[in-house]
Amino acid sequence: xxxxxxxxxxxxxxxxxxxxxxxxxxxxxxxxxxxxxxxxxxxxxxxxxxxxxxxxxxxxxxxxxxxxxxxxxxxxxxxxxxxxxxxxxxxxxxxxxxxxxxxxxxxxxxxxxxxxxxxxxxxxxxxxxxxxxxxxxxxxxxxxxxxxxxxxxxxxxxxxxxxxxxxxxxxxxxxxxxxxxxx
Amino acid sequence: xxxxxxxxxxxxxxxxxxxxxxxxxxxxxxxxxxxxxxxxxxxxxxxxxxxxxxxxxxxxxxxxxxxxxxxxxxxxxxxxxxxxxxxxxxxxxxxxxxxxxxxxxxxxxxxxxxxxxxxxxxxxxxxxxxxxxxxxxxxxxxxxxxxxxxx
Lengths: 183, 151
Known about the structure:
The structure holds two protein chains of two kinds. Chain A has six helices and seven strands. Chain A has helices at 3-22, 29-34, 45-57, 63-70, 90-100, 162-165; strands at 37-43, 72-81, 105-113, 121-129, 135-144, 147-155, 180-181. The longest helix of chain A has 20 residues, at 3-22. Chain B is of the alpha+beta class. Chain A binds chain B through residues 32, 35-47, 49-50, 53-54, 56-59, 170, and chain B through 89-99, 108-110, 115, 136, 138-139, 141-143, 146. Strand 1 of chain A pairs antiparallel with strand 2 of chain B, so a sheet runs across the interface.
């Protein structure tokens, strides 16, 4: 077989590998053991088509948002809710952070809000890109006093489009205004 | 010519297989769940009336609403039950766990222009297992939601 035939084949083989890299393992057994409620939302295959069908028929969703949603291959959300007094530590998040330190992942945004009444709230957005800089996926860690949400989105989505997804398809609403950027 | 006939035969066979591939019916799921749980399904009183009521009030929301209730003699691993009972056409969409032991699994599968949802719940107190399926047409549901929003 000639080399020029091998290159596209190798590139095709790389596509699922990149998608796999963008897919995170969201399980946090130690956190789940302390949580009062754990929700696990998986939107891929038929479930994603169902979610998309709702979005496609929703007149409030703009054509740009529909286009963005059509580029998604999967949305995975894990939510942990805690009783008053219980909380999440940095050590608890280490299994996920370790994956986010892997190749291709970059932290884009970190927002920390201090609320004396409800405790600190931290939102972080990570992007996964391939060697050419194309976005393969995204991760969101949203930590509040009594709740932790971990979101993993697979597909081509720009960070600016993330706000439109908030509140849809199991993704929490994120307030990324007044953001502090940095890694 | 032989190749064309072979291709035609293969196409017909594949088309036949697709046509024959049944979507897993509620009764089939209930029968398998009953065998796995060692319990007979109970059908709640007035479910027929409730379904009729739902159909009248929300005609698009209760399509194919079916429900069965099991009181298994032993503790149930709901994930294992789902794996045992559901065919691979079902995609798991939601899994919710509460500390008190209540667990809910929601599955979905595409059926033509509609979707079928299957909800499997294990109650925290008495370990009852509830199995519910309903057909969802997103276009009609959204239309109805829009109508409600407009008042």
